[in-house]
């Protein structure tokens, strides 16, 4: 009787082991099948490198769908704004501002927009209309009327003045509009974010002394700089 019990116990143990092995084989086979299904459409070049996979994984599909959704959302946001592109503003941020404190309201409005751009840590081209009249004429020409700063443009789209920019920041749209813009890691190595450099031709005087036909000295306007004896920074203006 004791021998029968021992043999029965061994058979039960053996059945359990076999069942576990079968379960393990099924799981292993399932993993292999999934791997083969993913790799069967891969195209192998003569050099042995994989050219591409026609059958993407679920995660890859989800990533592509998410990227497409984000692109469509981004395009939709940009379509809300008028397409007006300042020089050099196709893929950048252009900010027309003033450094003069004569009109406090205008100066404070420019400070608010600058603060938001710096808070998002994006690179932008600041064009101070008080430092160069050419920037003022450029801004007026773009908008077709004489307007005051600040005026913000992002990727060739006119975003607006201070009120519009602040409202966009509060509802989260400004962050989406600035996505993809290069981030600021350090001050401009050329002008330290001053946006202008002193003219090396006239040393900031905006005038030069020349000799006329009678060998007499006379003053003339320097053609290398603006009315303030400054030249635009070639990197960030």
Automatic annotation (TrEMBL):
Residues 93-159 form the Glutaredoxin domain. It comes from Arabis nemorensis. This is Glutaredoxin domain-containing protein. It comes from the Eukaryota. SUPFAM superfamilies: Thioredoxin-like.
């Amino acid at each position: 009787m004791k021998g029968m019990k021992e043999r029965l116990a061994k058979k039960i143990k053996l059945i359990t082991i076999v069942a576990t092995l079968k379960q393990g084989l099924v799981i292993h086979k399932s993993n292999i099948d999934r791997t083969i299904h993913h790799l069967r459409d891969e195209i192998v070049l003569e050099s042995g490198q994989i050219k591409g996979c026609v059958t993407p994984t679920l995660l890859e599909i989800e990533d592509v769908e998410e990227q497409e959704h984000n692109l469509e959302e981004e395009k939709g946001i940009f379509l809300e704004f008028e397409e007006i592109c300042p020089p050099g503003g196709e893929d950048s941020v252009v900010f027309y501002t003033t450094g003069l404190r004569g009109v406090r309201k205008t100066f404070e409005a420019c400070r608010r927009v600058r603060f938001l751009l710096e808070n998002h840590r994006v690179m932008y081209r600041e064009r101070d209309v008080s430092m160069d009249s050419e920037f003022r004429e450029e801004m007026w020409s773009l908008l077709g009327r004489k307007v005051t700063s600040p005026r913000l443009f992002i990727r060739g789209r006119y975003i607006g003045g201070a009120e519009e920019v602040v409202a966009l920041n509060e509802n989260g749209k400004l962050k989406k509009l600035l996505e993809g813009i290069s981030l600021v890691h350090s001050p401009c190595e050329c002008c330290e974010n001053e946006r202008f450099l002193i003219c090396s031709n006239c040393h900031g005087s905006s005038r030069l002394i020349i000799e006329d036909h009678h060998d007499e000295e006379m003053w003339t306007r320097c053609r290398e700089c603006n009315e303030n004896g400054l030249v635009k920074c070639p990197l960030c203006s």
